[in-house]
Amino acid sequence: MATYTFKCNCKFNVLSESDNSSVTEGQTGLPPVSFDISKTQEDDLDFYSCEKTWGLICDGKTKGVFQLESNLGRSWAKRLKPRSIEELAALVALIRPGCLKAIVDGKSMTQHYVDRKNGEEEATYLDDCLEPILKSTQGVLVYQEQSMKIAQTIAGFDLQQADELRKAIGKKKASLMASLKKEFLSGAENVGMVSTETAEEIFGWIEKSNRYAFNKSHAVSYAICGYWSAYAKAHFPVNFYCNYLHYSKGKPDAHQEIKELISDAKIYDIPVYPPSICKMNKSFSIYDNAINFGIGDIKFVGDSQAAKLANAISEASCHLSKVPDEWTWVEFLINCASKITSRVTTSLISVGALSHMSVSRSRMLYEHEIWSKLTAKEREWIVEKEGGWDNLKDCLIDLRPTKKLGGGTSNYKRSEIIGDYVQQLESPPYSLQDDPEWISGTEEELLGACLTYSKVDSCDTSSANATCKEFIDGRSGKIVLAVAVKSAREYKINKGQSKGKTMGFLTLEDSTCELDNAIAFPEDWSSYKHLLFEGNTVLIIGERSKKKDSFIVQKVSQI
Q1: Phi and psi angles of residue 360, each rounded to the nearest 5 degrees, phi first
Q2: Angle, nearest 10°, between helix axes 216-235 and 85-94?
Q3: Are the beta carbons of 521 and 550 closer than 8 angstroms?
Q4: Are 78 and 549 within 8 A, CB to CB?
Q5: Cα dist from 284 to 240, 247, 272, 324, whole Å
Q6: Which has the least CB within 10 A, 68, 172, 417, 548?
């Protein structure tokens, strides 16, 4: 087996607390902050023998790992448990649709490789001469290069003929494959290593491989890149997630990618916080070993509005002679709200960017709506007077004119309207306490993920005895989870005693993380699938599967 060594001098760009400047017009991308993962000794680092990295891959904790971040990649990584670049490259090739759909003796080529690697099936060869070529892949023809080598060994193909065979396999050229068959059989007869019947069988195997055989040079390149990303995740998880979150905006569904990354980060106890006007970082940043959303990561807040907000905060800080951490809500409202769009202000409030002001988000939104109804002259008068008000109500009381002293407006009709606003502030028509379900839904809409609460936090969870993260961390016995159903997929069983019946595969979530391997077998799925629909909050009783990685649903009730 090949030995891979690497003098490790990889650098990753991250946004860290070393770059804590405000957003400025035209600022884009991550600043060039780097860290070096090389070791200081002169000898080459045996980079590819890191137990922590291989352990992460073998456990299927591969969200964000190149080529292995899908459910398919994670699942087969756990089954195969690769421990070398050779095995990882094979995994990359084997999870392609061709290998998964190529059925031999009732099993896919992928399953044959896994069973042989794990000692559950003996590796066999059509002829002894194939063993040196196929031994590294457990006797399974995985790569196009292996077909080329077989043709050279058995049929005496030269490099050009072997490359023609590769093209026929890779580009699925049936006519070329037919002409090469004649050359192969003729060559095999001349070489005399195998009988004509065996040569026919071997070529038939090669011919069928055109449905799935992969290019080994690509597979090894992918495996090396995958290992590098897994190494970064294993050793520098905060930086890893910060970078992946930053570049998630390039994904087809950016918010879904953000949600999955944050759920995965929670498993590693990495805190992720909403954006804050106290930091004013533009994109995802690292502060005190935690990841913080940036102002530019909020939906509806573009670069130009972020720049306007930064300027407004800078001017207000000079005017008030204090930093945003020390501002009151009414100070932000008076000094900044009129300098950015109403949508940006409501977005900032809704995601918790002003939460340090100790006013509920519902109240801020309610008071901002009233503030927006004031005329430009009235708001200008308030800004100029800056009466040191503690709240918006006192501000509006000062704004109203009196018969003797005058005020912010000389229009007595307008005075009555402002009086109504004062009454609305004193006696709101609905509760201004924040509801966890509303906060979680709003954060998910504007940021892509729930950070402060989950949907379940608004429910009675007193009967639960575990969280999703506790299950992932190994909790066993009778488990009761209070969760929201993120997704539910019905699957029809095609073989065995339950053939024709349906079962359910579920992804569940609470405030700790997502649990994407919950299973409801036919009887329980039939009993409870009316409750197991996307978005519903339920109490689920279950236990760990015999293989220790799945949550088996036994009973479900509404919460």
Answers
A1: -65, 150
A2: 110
A3: no
A4: yes
A5: 12, 10, 10, 20
A6: 548
Question: For residues 175 and 62, is the Cβ–Cβ distance under 8 A?
Answer: no
What are residue 493's phi and psi, to 5 degrees?
Answer: -75, 130
Distance, first Cα to last Cα, the chain: 55
Q: Which amino acid is at 291?
A: I
Cα distance between residue 53 and residue 88, in whole Å: 12
The alpha carbon dihedral of 194, 199, 205, 211 has a sign of: positive
CA distance 511 to 455: 8
What's the pLDDT tens digit per position in 249-301? 888 899 999 999 999 999 999 999 999 999 999 999 999 999 999 999 999 89
Which H or E run includes 175? Answer: helix 174-191
DSSP string, 345-361: HHHHHHTTTTGGG---H
What's the pLDDT score for residue 411? 65
3-state secondary structure of 185: helix
The predicted structure's pLDDT at residue 359: 96
SS3 of residue 218 by DSSP: helix
Its pTM surpasses 0.70: yes
The answer to whether residues 72 and 95 touch, using CB atoms and an 8 Å cutoff, is: yes
Is the predicted pLDDT of residue 18 greater than 70, yes or no?
no
pLDDT, tens digit (0-9, with 9 covering 90-100), for 287-310: 999 999 999 999 989 888 999 999
Query: Does residue 270 contact residue 240 with C-beta atoms inside 8 Å?
Result: no
Q: Return the HEC string of 290-341.
A: EEECCHHHCCCCCHHHHHHHHHHHHHHHHHHCCCHHHCCHHHHHHHCHHHCC
d(CA 188, CA 180): 12
CB 456 within 8 A of CB 537: yes
Beta strands, E only, 316-468: none
Two tokens at 161? 């003929």
* Those residues with Cβ within 8 angstroms of residue 364's Cβ, 6 or more apart along the chain or in another chain: 329, 349, 354, 357
β-pairing, 514-520 with 551-558? Answer: parallel
Taking CA 140 as the corner, what is the angle to CA 187 and CA 65, rounded to the nearest 5 degrees?
130
Helix or strand holding residue 371 (H, E): helix 361-372
Chain centre distance of CA 42: 37
Max CA-CA distance within the chain? 117
DSSP letter, residue 104: E
> d(Cα 129, Cα 268) in Å, to the nearest integer?
48
Total residue count of the chain as it appears in this document? 559
Tokens 């072997």, located at residue: 162
* Cβ–Cβ < 8 Å for 179, 157: no
**374 Rama class: left (phi>0) / alpha (psi -120 to 50) / beta:** beta
At residue 544 the predicted structure's pLDDT band, cuts being 50, 70 and 90, is: very high
Is pLDDT of 58 > 70? yes
CA–CA dist 453, 456 (Å, integer): 8
